[in-house]
Specification:
With about 130 residues, the protein is mainly alpha-helical. The chain is built from five helices and no strands. It has one domain. It is flat.
Length: about 130
């Protein structure tokens, strides 16, 4: 049986590595197959009609950020939404689709040397949980 305090310390130590591996896997997935990920963010407006006011506000924040290429805000807000148990399967799918589209645009912009994209990647690394 594992000691919970030891497990917690090990997880704290390896969490940054796990995060970097996950982000690298996402990058490879988006860029590796020469397929274009969807670059536009679209969702049925009715998808979040039944959601709480807080969830609707976060969804609207993510969409607004995506529309203005505020990559970090869009992705971090979507990440927050992903962690909520209250989302329906359709809402989860909309969040995942939005994240894929924003990540594709972010990686494309970063590869082209866009300073906004580079700064967003740094911010996402700092705040991803």
């Amino acid at each position: 049986m594992l000691n919970p305090s030891v497990t917690a310390r090990v997880m704290d130590k390896f969490q940054p590595l796990i995060l970097k591996a996950a982000m690298m896997a996402a990058f490879i997935t988006l860029m590796g197959c020469n397929r274009q990920a969807p670059s536009t963010v679209t969702a049925d407006p009715k998808t979040f009609e039944s959601a709480s006011a807080e969830i609707k506000a976060d969804w609207d924040k993510a969409l607004a950020a995506a529309a203005t290429n505020d990559y970090a805000t869009a992705l971090l807000t979507c990440r927050k939404l992903q962690g909520l148990e209250a989302l329906t399967p359709d809402q989860r799918a909309a969040v995942a689709k939005t994240m894929a589209a924003v990540e594709a645009r972010l990686m494309d912009a970063a590869q082209k040397g866009d300073a906004n994209a580079t700064n967003a990647l740094a911010e996402i690394r700092r705040h991803w949980r």
